[in-house]
Design brief:
mainly alpha, globular, 14 helices, 286 residues, single chain, 2 domains
Amino acid sequence: MNSEEEILTYCDKIIQLLKEELDVLKKDSVYSAVSPSEIKSGWITTKIGILKPLYQHRILFECFHIVILDSFLTLLKNILQFSNNNTFLLDFSLRTIYEFSFKYIDTHFSPFLNSELEHRIRLLRVLIDYLILGKDNQRWKQYTNDLYREEVNRLDEREKKMIEDCLRNFNFEKIKRINGYTNLLYNKFLENIKPLPFLDENKLKIVYSLLSHLIHGDPFIIKGVIEDNKNKKGRFFAVFLMSTINAINRVGRFINNPQISLKIEYFNSNFLKIWEISKRYYYKPQ
């Protein structure tokens, strides 16, 4: 097996493990258990055969962490197919990959930190989506009102005022303010999250800063990325490897499954080896 095959095999296997983790989460979750006919009828059948109302507006809120992992996995599987393409557009996917892992997964799969703050962030994040979807859709507008009414006690007075103001008179500037405020809460939560022992915190901050400048249209960064054809794969696999190793560990600790924990140890013990192979194989000095 040559160097590139070894790297790609490691990446494929880590995606397979993320899929196993997702399957464990979905097993007893409404997110995957509800059939189309149940959604249409508004009733769900429990494991012991009892019918109970299906509160559709709660599915995304209660299963938000599963939606995040499901979306992350879909992104990874699709983007890995294009890793051989010599296109600078691949670089524009890296900030999204990074943010899924080091922002959303770090926050919503953290069982040992402030769960009340996580639920506030989750509620605001879901309400933002519901408000946008409900702008011209009565059903989603009702979902927004129902979820807000049931969970309003999680929010402080400032947060209540922002949501109620948007419910009364929707506009995208208000959504932008709520979203900006929610991002501040994410940052507050993430201050207490320490990186895995083999991931350097300062290097993670530098990578995020560079990816942010790229996605926000910094002309010098974009020009450098377009002209640097030699290191496209190096950048891609650096972000891919960091983000996926972080994700399997955070999700694995959250679900606490012994069999999956053993598999995570394999990836952890081989990470630095694969990282060095990736650097030697893909990094080409200018």
